[in-house]
Model the fold of this input.
Amino acid sequence: MIMENNVYSKSITEWGAKHPETVVLSADLGTSCEIMEFKKNYPDRYFSLGIAEQNMIGWAAGLAREGFLPYLHSFGVFLYRRVLDQVEMSVAYGNLPVGLVGFVPGLTTPGGVSHQSTNDIGTLRCVPNMRIYSIADATDIEGFLPMAYEAGGPFYVRMLRKSVPRLFPADEPIQFDHARIVTEGSDVALFTENIATEEGMKAVKVLQDHGVSVQMLSVSTLKPFTDPQVVDALKKVKYGAVTYENHNIIGGLGTCVAEVLAENGIGKPLVKVGVNDLYTHGASKMFLLKKYNVDAMSCIKAVEQLIGKDLGIDESEIEAVRFEDFNGVA
Amino acid sequence: MAKRSYTNEEIQRTANKIRKQVLKFAIERGGCYITQTNSSAEVLATLYLDVMNLGDSLGDPDGIPFPGVPGPDNMDFPRGSLYNGPTSAPYDRFFLSPAHYACTLYCTLFAVGRVSETGIERFNKDGWIFEQIGAEHSPGFETTAGSLAQTISVACGHAHARKLKGEEGTIWCFMSDGELEEGQLWEAIQAAAFYKLDNFVLVCDINGQQIEGPTKEIMNTQPLYDRFTAFGAKTVEIDGHDIDAIKAACRTEHPGQPLVVLCNTKPTHGMPFLDHRTERLHFVNVKTPEQIAEAKAFYDSME
Done:
């Protein structure tokens, strides 16, 4: 599997070249949010608003109402949790095209609880007009800004940075409200988002080796959540569904899928893998995924629970998984 | 077409008309936001008739039924800002931050001829746009401002955008002193000074009252002149009932800086019969027979 760097940086800089109305706003985390290249290229469209996120949200609303396309960059927590009322009253209510680009989603930061956005999907799903997206790989990032622009309105995205895997072919861009079918299968439907997609793909390889057939979908639009492929997958499988997310098991992808199950009268069980409704602490990503049972093994155990079998899978089998190499766009 | 100019007497008569209409509502409906009106009537009348460069109203003077909230399928509904005329440069724009002044603003629009008698009677009537605490569809409103001190940031975004586009016109933001306690205000002033928004003016009604009582007893914000000055704004402090002073203050030169006009006002100004009311003044009840009698007697004495 190929890892790539500065994917968002390139993406937002290219977007700025194509769309002169693009403005980038920063709350003093620009160096951590891959927007310094944009600043270098378009210094007159890069605005530092200081460590003052409430004002930044309203300021962006004003810019958007004047025809600009503001993209706000910070760690996710500072773009929804700290500023929820501003996001609702100044941006979401007006259905304004303001982009909230939230970095270090969920457990991807050693910064501890103050920096870990583990309830962003749940919080923002209750906000009318808000679109919610989650990024799983480099290909998702490359197609993201055009997709979100086409979809319109305000959005919040769980963005990835630094070394990002390329899990999907570069010529198959992210699509609005349309999950990626990663594998076809008939036993279990597995829904993943964000870094859980990469971990989930490892789990699926091992499960397949043990004879379990998995219909895996990587979900990138969390709101709206009306992709018919979700219903199809749920109807198709024998045992039921597992959701696996870099988020609290309440309010996120698991809840989205549970609602679809119930609303469509699909009487199959659901096992949710994610942060188990608790506050977490700071450490490295893989340490935290294991500690909070959000790792690939936890996903495998959820599938085992669903099919009622202990497959006797060892951690070394997960570590041995190697993905196909997809090259990026030259 | 040259803008009509108004004498101070005409502006004062307009301020009195704003007060009279709000008092009428209070008598008919058991109370109203009277003190906000008393403190801000001269300021708003002067802004609308003399200071701001607004085009003719584009709103329906009679008001319209609630047109729905903004959303993917409803972005082109008639906005409350239509009542302030075109929103494009070179016209000025007016942003009301404390949405609890909604009644005062509607009555101002009525007094300056932008809302009709039919329209103003629709204040707080179910299903119409003249809501008690307004939002983007309400006459005179640009934003959904009921959560305090958010509008200044939006207004500053507009001012910044106009500078980026090289457009003329001033962005006016009106705030009341209670909401100056919010941290977001100071974030916004800090940024307005940083971005040298000399096309932005904040007009503050310093009436010294908030819901639980006198501002100085609830959460002191003074010395406001020193605070705004320290944050980088050109600041002037005036008697907010003195029309000449309001005109002059709003025309203060402020190159490279936002301007803040602190209007010291009295919540019972123009209605001395309320001077003895020492209870909370955020929403003045006119309910008891005595209250109704003294309000009616004063109303009848108004021009």
